Amino acid sequence: MTWPQFPARFTPAWSQTYRALCSLTRPFPKGTPLLADAEQVLKYIPDYGKGVLHLVRFRHQVIDVSAKRQEDGPYWRLKVLNLNNRTVLSLCYDAAVVSNGRYNKIYEPSIPGIDDWKRLDPRSVLHSKRFRDAKEFEAKHIFHVGHPNLAFVMLHLRVVAFPFAESQVAVIARVWSGRLRLPPYEEMAT
């Protein structure tokens, strides 16, 4: 439960998951559309967690998970690092859910010329995790690389988001290898 620390939300945006699939044991409030907007989802999650928030440990990092067995049955032993005071805790649980944090750490590949480009206009190169509002890109030339869900968020602004599959691999491979140069900043800024 890290929503205050990492608010992955767009304004305005719709959630990319059908409401019935993301509601837990309590349904969304009556009147919530099938594709709830970001504000509704962000309100639902903390409201849902109110009864168990005292069990959540913020600023703790799991460093080891191992299955154990006792006379009364199996359990999971966790070693957890408290990031506030750097102490290691040993905790036991009946179940363990592994979430790999795939979207927690941003991966930005090294592309020839991209650092110079970022120095000229730092906001023109943006990882989707930091995307909040497409209006800042309105009437600009946009090159979108990545998952198509973000492209749908930008459609109402007529941002052209290229659907990538084989073409993505071919074009990006040429950029990374230096066989295809990025256009100069001046050309893209007009």
Automatic annotation (TrEMBL):
One Pfam match: FMO-like
GO molecular function: flavin adenine dinucleotide binding; N,N-dimethylaniline monooxygenase activity; NADP binding
Domain of life of the source: Eukaryota
Keywords: FAD, Flavoprotein, Monooxygenase, Oxidoreductase
InterPro entries: FAD/NAD-bd_sf (IPR036188), Flavin_mOase-like (IPR020946), FMO-like (IPR050346)
Sequence similarity: Belongs to the FMO family.
UniProt-recorded name of the protein: Flavin dependent monooxygenase
Lineage of producing organism: Eukaryota, Fungi, Dikarya, Ascomycota, Pezizomycotina
